[in-house]
Design brief:
With about 120 residues, the protein is mainly alpha-helical. The chain has 5 helices and no strands. The relative contact order is 0.13. The N terminus is likely disordered.
């Protein structure tokens, strides 16, 4: 069942959609395994946007994503030098965060682990 985005029935006092049965995703920056934390967070965001907020404008989806990544995420976003158009697209944020959280190949560490 798709929950309509633009009806007054589900709008709170701030004009934002209110769904008491859906908890907003939160990216836990203190998680021990950030790659899987990000993957879970990204999948949950995509599901909410696909199912509940299908008709929400892309710019508003991007704004929600910025809220959900929290302070640390927004500090990271500021370093990306996005154009005005890029800043309105969730796909850009997903790609940039995926690049950020992608496991780095460490030649020295890999060599040390294989030799010991």
């Amino acid at each position: 069942m798709e929950v309509p985005y633009n009806t007054n029935n589900n709008m709170g006092d701030t004009g934002n959609p209110v769904y008491p049965y859906v908890q907003s995703p939160v990216l836990n920056w203190e998680a021990p395994e950030m790659v899987s934390e990000w993957e879970h967070f990204e999948a949950l965001c995509m599901l909410i946007f696909k199912c509940l907020w299908k008709n929400m404008p892309e710019e508003k989806k991007a704004a929600h994503l910025q809220l959900w990544v929290g302070r640390k995420g927004n500090e990271l976003i500021k370093t990306w030098e996005l154009t005005e158009d890029q800043a309105k697209k969730c796909d850009i944020y997903y790609r940039k965060f995926n690049d950020y959280f992608e496991p780095r190949f460490n030649i020295r560490l890999n060599h040390y682990q294989s030799c010991s």
